[in-house]
Amino acid sequence: MPIVENEGETVEVDLTEEEIKKIKSLLGRDPYITEWGMFDVMGSEHCSYKSSRPKLKLFEPAEENYDYVLAGPGQDAGVVDIGDDYCIAFRIESHNHPSAIEPYHGAATGIGGIIRDILCMGMRPIALLDPLRFGRLKNNSHSQWLLKYVVKGIADYGNCTGIPTIGGEVEFDHSFENNCLVNVACIGVGKVEDLAPSRASKPGDYAVLMGNSTGRDGIHGVTFASRTLTEQSESDRPAVQIADPFSKKLIIEATVEAVKTGYIRGLKDLGGGGLSCASSELTGDGGTGIEFDVNKVFTREPNMTPFEIMLSESQERMMFIVKAEGLETILEIFKKYETPYAVLGKINNSKLLRVKNADKIVVELDPTLLSDFPVIIREEKRPEFLNDLINQKTPERTLKFDGIIYRLIASENICSKEWIYRQYDHEVGVRSVVKCGDGDSGVLRIIGTNKFISGSAGCNSKHCFLDPYEGAKGAVVEIGCNIVSNGLKPIAMVNCCNFGNPEKPTSFWYFSECVKGMADSIKFFNIPCVGGNVSFYNEDEVLQKVIKPTPIIMLLGYIEGQENIITLPFKKAGNPIFLIGETKNELGGSEYHSVIYNIEGGTPPKVNLDSTKRTWDFLLEVNKKGYIRSVHDVNKGGFLITILEMSFPNELGADLNLYDCFDKDLTSEQFLFSESVGRFIIEVDADKIKEFIALIEKNKLYFKEIGVIIEEMQIKIKRLEENFNLDIMIAKNLFNSTLPRIMEGDM
Amino acid sequence: MNIRIAVIQFPGSNCDRDATHVLNNVIGIQADLIWHTNFKERKYDGCILPGGFSFGDYLRGGIIAAHSPAVKEAEIMLKDGRPVLGICNGFQILTEAEFLPGALLRNNTLKFECKWVHIRVENNETAFSNQMKKKEIMDIPIAHSEGRYFYDNLKELYDNDQIVFKYVSKEGLLNEESNPNGSFDNIAGVCNLERNCVGLMPHPERASEEILSPFKNTHGIKLFNSMVNFIKSKVI
Amino acid sequence: MEYIVEVVLENKPAARDPVGSTIQKDLMAKQGYDMVSNVRTGQYLRIYVKAENEQLAEKLVEKMCNDLRIFNPVTQNLTVLSVKKKN
Amino acid sequence: MEYIVEVVLENKPAARDPVGSTIQKDLMAKQGYDMVSNVRTGQYLRIYVKAENEQLAEKLVEKMCNDLRIFNPVTQNLTVLSVKKKN
Ligand SMILES: Nc1ncnc2c1ncn2[C@@H]1O[C@H](COP(=O)(O)OP(=O)(O)O)[C@@H](O)[C@H]1O
Ligand SMILES: [Mg+2]
Q: What is the sign, positive or negative, of the torsion defined by CA atoms of A411, A414, A416, A417?
């Protein structure tokens, strides 16, 4: 990396020679050393999105095209209006690299960061979600260690701050062995009038720094996150921060109370780039300027240099832009919560960020220079190995169907995730209406209204690996199905793109295809993308191993009226069971292939956006009419796994007659195990079958009545080439015991 | 009469709003959220120490909050017979303040446990259980990592009838499987000798509305109704 | 004068030590470290305190730990490991 | 021969210790013990281990704590406080 200097001080910067030249010419002089540090941080992939920005333009502008979007991409969090003066903020972020070397504090500070993003919109954080990826678990102490401490980190932080973790997702695959993924999402609620922009728009306002003291921890954390994890990271180790959820809880309460006074004009959290990023963005976006002395910043260690103070990424700090007349009130609130603070200075109209160390100027520049880094156009190329992979054939079946299904239900990717969500307080806040395990999404009530929101997040990395465009579309469909399954309507999306090194054309191709897939599908569904995050360099340079492409989709659901909320468990014997949506020969990337044959290839699922959209609309309509009693979308392992999952909670069985239920070109195993997306299993009220069928025919949806719920604890499968029974208690035991046995036992 | 309840907010409390919501909006009595340094007992008929992580649970759940001025005010209330309830972290605070016997240790699972359990009423003559039947079984959730009840003189608890709730199975059986954290004798909640102070690990405020209960009931509300009844009957 | 006093809080035997036994049983023994027969865990505190001399520093810390219930007498024992002058 | 090895795992000196600073600030200082200027906390382990001699006992424990990730060197340090023969 190039070394730059000024007045005898030098610093290593992760900038290209071209960028260095451009910075000098824009500034008209050599930057001071602290300014170099700022350019370095702001120019990192993590802050500048220099590789990804051209692709992210594919998402249509949310604020312009959707009237209920109050804040879109570019803000700290997306915000949507849900009526009656209430709005919802949400966002997702990755904390992959820190978690790979320090799973506990890495994951915990990830939660800390995403909470701050919601908080600094002026909203109260009310829910968390955690999509995760690790290497295979069984007989792998490294993966087990990562899972154990990542979950503990999320649990300790979320539980202590009183924010329920209402859902998440986890996949285990060898490609994540050395690069685990820890994505974290947060949802917040508030009144529209409390929305705080990340802007200092009015001269005369005060800039107040609040929260923990500034230390030497995490200097250059951002640059670290944007570099591939190599041996080099060993020496970067102190870059992982120590989590402090108790301080965060006080900061949350103090901030929410401060916002309620109406005296907060702007608000920004200190994340990547610390004080330099926060102060330049606040003034840059507000068209203003500020001058302050670094000595005003309260530090944890003596003798910190201006460079260190401006670039420290110490956790749990916020910058408030306070109306002059409200300063005293706000400071009183900070005193009540005993959160340290410093009034840094006043906003002015100089359009300059000017930082002094006593008499010496250490920063003096136009803050907008920092935010407009030039993009880099990256090369893209489809990997050659894909053709062979997609043509991979399903080996000859030797096992019986019941044996296969028992193995699938006990496999890492399909088994119950209760071992994880038990450790999360998913009920604090008394909002959780559909709790972890009861439905495909976490549903929350908005207290004081008849409004409900929900969140679900994830994607299928194996599908995306074989076909990133269809895989990303499939992710939008799968997450949308999760929302619709519980009776809510998807209204907005955020995403977290996890990919390899963008400088490598194949990695960048995966990213590019996934963004296209996401953008095309949400446009079709009329769902705005209100935010996102990109994490590149999830790649092990030494072992030449890249993660499977993982475009995590998170959707926010909304509905008014408690009667619309529906859950997953079968409710009553005698009710008929329907399979909606067509099953195709799409075993590529399926759990069947991976668990039974240990192969990754085959034809991956293709998405039919049109029929999916009509299915969603239909489901929301029949649900309103009260015709259906339980719903679960079909996902990993195929629809029999879905039926088993619905049968476990109330221990009800099913009698299935599968004759004539699928296309003649399909084999039974393709029908049973394909993971074609956009399908649902639905329990219909026995008294409403006629009405239900009439409506489904009117909507011209593909459907089959496949059987009926029974009291007996068996799933009886008839009229395939072999009839077979599944014992619900055996399957349930396999489903529930897999994770505890691996994590607490000896596997 | 106008009943007035204080819900104390310690730094790090996080079920304070939840308890206040149930008292105000479900039961319909006045409950005020009060910052721990501002609490004055005079105005209140009863008080609740809510769940959460006071002072981060750093060092030990409840220990730092036990030194708060609010706890001294609560002691005054207890001495003149007014009801004081500790839920979860509040229970830990009450034991650390020695208003209640015993201590709450790290769960024997060594993990945070968030799930619905069943508890059985052992003593229905306290300020917070007088609207329940003896041996009644209630559905209620827990969410804690330091909830293993320990006391080195169990006999004293039995002799004084201080055990209020025990963890049991759905059918009411006292066994190891129904004990979520390794508590001595499946103890989930205890009271003081005067019966006006009760602490329990489960969260009644999360079990007071049908919409939140997987069992579609409101068993938790009986604790709060008992408190209201206790306050009213004392006044009459 | 400033002193550094190291103390350890441990569970009394009756209160058990699930952390220690889990580390010994589920971690060490299973990974082949069977020469470890027992593990006990505790909370360690290093307290930096101003006092006239070593004895007083130790006394003060002991008194404070009792006063403030730094250890819970129902379940824990406290041991002073060492008292050193800070340099 | 059986040895007793006492070790402490704590956050690296440059890292924060929110537990320690909360104990110092919100418990000790507020209750009048303002002669305490700082508190650092850690996890204490007393390990009973069979080994040939003292040096080997210490080595073994250090290796084991590293191997089994009883602590994470990214954020924590391990200090052996003492090694004693068990009697
Ligand atoms: N990492 C996690 N954190 C919290 N909850 C999780 C996690 N992984 C899975 N869950 C929960 O487990 C349940 C089943 O998840 P999953 O198997 O991914 O659902 P699906 O049936 O849609 O495939 C959901 O309630 C989900 O929120
Ligand atoms: Mg689903």
A: positive
Give CATH for domain C2-15+42-85.
3.30.1280.10
Is residue A664 very low, low, confident or very high in pLDDT (cuts 50, 70, 90)?
A: confident
The answer to whether B10 contacts chain D (CB < 8 Å) is no
DSSP annotation string for A633-667: E--TT-HHHHHHHHHTTTT-EEEEE-TT-S-TTS-
Q: Distance, in angstroms, between D19 CA and closest chain B CA?
A: 5
CA D36 – CA A87 distance, rounded (Å): 47
The two three-digit tokens of residue A373, written as one number: 């880094």
CA nearest C11 in B: which residue? B105
Q: How many Å apart are CA A532 and CA A510, to the nearest integer?
A: 17
Residue the block writes with tokens 């929301």: A620
Quick one: closest CA in A to B17, which residue? A429
Domain boundaries, chain D: 2-15+42-85
A345 lines ligand 1 (CB under 6 A): no
Q: Which chains touch C (3 or more CB pairs under 8 A)?
A: A, B, D
DSSP A270-308: --TTHHHHHHHHHHHHHT-EEEEEGGGS-BSSTT--HHH
The answer on A284 and A343 residing in a single domain is yes
Which residue, judged by its Cα, is nearest atom 14 of ligand 1? A437
What is the spatial distance between Cα C32 and Cα D31, in angstroms, rounded to a whole number? Answer: 47
DSSP tag of A575: -
Alpha helices in A526-654 (DSSP H): 591, 609-625, 639-647
Taking the CA atoms of residue A94, residue A98, residue A99 and residue A101 in that order, the dihedral angle to the nearest 10 degrees is: 150
Q: Which residue has the higher pLDDT, A10 or A233?
A: A10
What 8-state DSSP symbol labels residue A375?
P
Listed residue (A638, A608, A567) closest to A700, CA to CA = A608
Ligand 1 centroid to residue A419 C-alpha, Å = 11
Nearest ligand to the CA atom of A677: 2
Q: In which domain, by residue range, is A122 found?
A: 3-52+93-371
Partner-chain contact A744 C30, CB within 8 Å? no
Nearest listed ligand to the Cα of residue A154: 1
Distance CA(A578)–CA(A131), nearest Å, equals 30
Instruction: Give pLDDT, residue A229.
Output: 38
Tracing tokens 């000196």 back to the chain, one arrives at D13
CA D56 to chain C, closest CA, distance in angstroms equals 12
* Contact (CB, 8 A) for B120 and B137: yes
Domain co-membership, A211 together with A136: yes
Kindly identify which residue of chain C lies nearest to residue A746, measuring between CA atoms: C30
Q: Is D70 helix (H, G, I), strand (E, B) or coil?
A: coil
CATH of the domain at A237: 3.90.650.10
Indicate if ligand 1 lies below 6 Å from the C-beta of A735. Answer: no
Q: What is the pLDDT of residues A567-597, one digit of tens each?
A: 999 999 999 999 999 999 999 999 999 999 9
- Pairwise CB contact (< 8 Å): A744 & C26: yes
The residues in A 74-113 lying below 8 A from B, measured between CB atoms, are none
Q: List, in order, residues 6 or more apart from A412 with CB less than 8 Å away.
A: A136, A137, A138, A172, A738, A739, A742
Ligand in nearest proximity to the CA of A679: 2
Residues A226 and A287 in one domain: yes
Tokens representing A743 are 């994590």
Q: Which of C11, C12, C69 is the closest to B96 by Cβ?
A: C69
B4-235 folds as: Rossmann fold (3.40.50)
Asked if the Cβ–Cβ distance from A217 to D11 is below 8 Å, we say: no
Token pair listed for B121? 């009423």
Stretch A534-546: mean pLDDT: 91
Model confidence pTM above 0.90: yes
User: What is the pLDDT at residue D13?
Assistant: 84
The nearest CA of chain D is from the CA of C73 a distance in Å of: 17
Distance CA A483, CA A129 (A): 14
Q: How many domains does chain A have?
A: 2
How large is the ipTM?
0.95
